[in-house]
Amino acid sequence: MDWLKNDVALITGANSGIGRAVLRRFIAEGASGVGVLIRNGAQADAMREEFGDRIAITVGDVRSPDANEEAVRATTKAFGKLDTMVGNAGVWDHFASLRKFDGATAKATFEEVFAVNVLGYLLAAHASAPALRETNGSMIFTLSNASFYAGGGGPVYVASKHACVGLIRQLAYELAPDVRVNGVAPGGTVTPLKGPESLGKADRLLSDIPGFSDAVAEAVPLGFIAQPEDHTGHYVLLASRENSRATTAEIIQSDGGWEVRGRPARRA
Ligand SMILES: NC(=O)c1ccc[n+]([C@@H]2O[C@H](COP(=O)([O-])OP(=O)(O)OC[C@H]3O[C@@H](n4cnc5c(N)ncnc54)[C@H](O)[C@@H]3O)[C@@H](O)[C@H]2O)c1
In which element (H, E) is residue 236 found? Predict the structure, then answer.
């Protein structure tokens, strides 16, 4: 449990779901401190209670360049350096399909979802690159089965997560050899992932969709829906210089086997 001993990380959207599980795991792996960029200040107290002075909290929106820069500043001020930036904050589109959109809603949903899911990652990369160059650190982005396959959302979410594949590849190319850039692509996971305001679904959770867990479990060969903790080892591996020194522009799929989707008939 010491793969990240004395490392410092920054995680966006670390107050819940996959981000919070990665935060817990990084600390368990010996990270000396983790900066977190969270949108809702009301969650700061609960986070301080759980993590104490092991975290440095910045409250802000990932769509803001200033918030991302402030998060990097707060992290390096509190812990002296930055080794890994995890871009993770995201919104989902609740399967909003093309035929259900009018033009204005399609535009608003596109702008909101791409701003959080793609621009948010770009701004986090921009803000953290100088500090990561100094440490020969790395970036890790949370992608999705929707980064590779249809059906993990509507066209807006799926396009946004596909766009992040291009972002990883281009950043890995531009920032080499100083900074490694990789991704983890979870499949359906039990989290409070929310929808966009533009669709009036800012408080509607993915995991509240009736039958969602069973549908995910049924759709993948491994036959279960993941918990956030199931993905965290991949982030640790990619963050670890010792264990991933030669790995950049890689995306680890942690989705129960979407690549070979469908379950084989069980033999007696
Ligand atoms: N849950 C799934 O089934 C699943 C599957 C594949 C990929 N993902 C991806 O995992 C990542 C984490 O999501 P999660 O499932 O843990 O859900 P989550 O809702 O627990 O985490 C998302 C986080 O992003 C934050 N966030 C959203 N908009 C923000 C903004 N504008 N500024 C700052 N923070 C903002 C939220 O507050 C939240 O903390 C997302 O990128 C999501 O697309 C989730």
Answer: helix 232-239
Residue 264 located in a structural domain: no
Nearest to 138 by CA among 88, 79, 83: 83
Q: Which candidate, 180, 186, 176, places its Cα nearest to that of 220? A: 186
- Domain that includes residue 164, residue range: 8-255
Which of 92, 148, 193, 230 should be mutated for ligand 1, with most atoms under 8 A from CB? 193
Residue 144 beta carbon below 6 angstroms from any ligand 1 atom: yes
d(CA 173, CA 28): 31
Query: Is 261 inside a domain boundary?
Result: no
pLDDT, one tens digit per residue, over 211-238 is 999 999 999 999 999 999 999 999 999 9
Q: How many domains does the chain have?
A: 1
For position 192, which CATH number holds?
Answer: 3.40.50.720
User: In this structure, is residue 36 part of a structural domain?
Assistant: yes
